[in-house]
From TrEMBL:
<protein>
    <recommendedName>
        <fullName>Ribosomal silencing factor RsfS</fullName>
    </recommendedName>
</protein>
<keyword id="KW-0678">Repressor</keyword>
<keyword id="KW-0963">Cytoplasm</keyword>
<dbReference type="GO" id="GO:0017148">
    <property type="term" value="P:negative regulation of translation"/>
</dbReference>
<dbReference type="Pfam" id="PF02410">
    <property type="entry name" value="RsfS"/>
</dbReference>
<dbReference type="InterPro" id="IPR004394">
    <property type="entry name" value="Iojap/RsfS/C7orf30"/>
</dbReference>
<dbReference type="GO" id="GO:0043023">
    <property type="term" value="F:ribosomal large subunit binding"/>
</dbReference>
<dbReference type="GO" id="GO:0090071">
    <property type="term" value="P:negative regulation of ribosome biogenesis"/>
</dbReference>
<comment type="function">
    <text>Functions as a ribosomal silencing factor. Interacts with ribosomal protein uL14 (rplN), blocking formation of intersubunit bridge B8. Prevents association of the 30S and 50S ribosomal subunits and the formation of functional ribosomes, thus repressing translation.</text>
</comment>
<comment type="similarity">
    <text>Belongs to the Iojap/RsfS family.</text>
</comment>
<dbReference type="InterPro" id="IPR043519">
    <property type="entry name" value="NT_sf"/>
</dbReference>
<dbReference type="GO" id="GO:0005737">
    <property type="term" value="C:cytoplasm"/>
</dbReference>
<keyword id="KW-0810">Translation regulation</keyword>
<dbReference type="GO" id="GO:0042256">
    <property type="term" value="P:cytosolic ribosome assembly"/>
</dbReference>
<comment type="subunit">
    <text>Interacts with ribosomal protein uL14 (rplN).</text>
</comment>
Length: 122
């Protein structure tokens, strides 16, 4: 399935079940393992599980393949691996704690700036 089509399908599936704060990160310059990370929040274990399940169902209906799913047991953080796209559905506290957006940022500006300042002062 085409990457753009798959990304649109995933975002739509998350919006269908009222997923919040949906973010799509382009990781093509950071890793060759996958091209996109999609992160969304759900307010409860039940909603997180429902969001992840809806992504799986919509991708399967469209002829796509779900490679694996992790975390469905507790529903705090469910990862859906679609190959080119990895979907993370998390409760807000878990999402804030792990901060995947910063982890996968192309340029963590604060640290890079601090290193450059230290280097210039030496």
């Amino acid at each position: 399935m085409d990457l753009r089509k798959l990304q649109k399908l995933v975002v739509s599936a998350l919006e269908d079940i009222k997923g919040r704060d949906i973010e799509v990160l382009n990781t093509t310059k950071l890793t060759s393992l996958f091209d996109r990370i999609v992160i969304a929040s759900g307010d409860s274990n039940r909603q997180v599980k429902a969001l992840a399940r809806n992504v799986q169902e919509k991708v399967a209906e469209a002829g796509g393949e779900v490679l694996s799913v992790e975390g469905e047991d507790n529903g705090e953080w469910v990862l859906v691996d679609l190959g080119d796209i990895v979907v993370h559905v998390m409760q807000p506290a878990i999402r804030a704690h792990y901060n995947l957006e910063e982890l996968w940022a192309a340029r963590p500006a604060k640290r890079r700036l601090a290193v450059e300042e230290d280097g210039a002062a030496a």
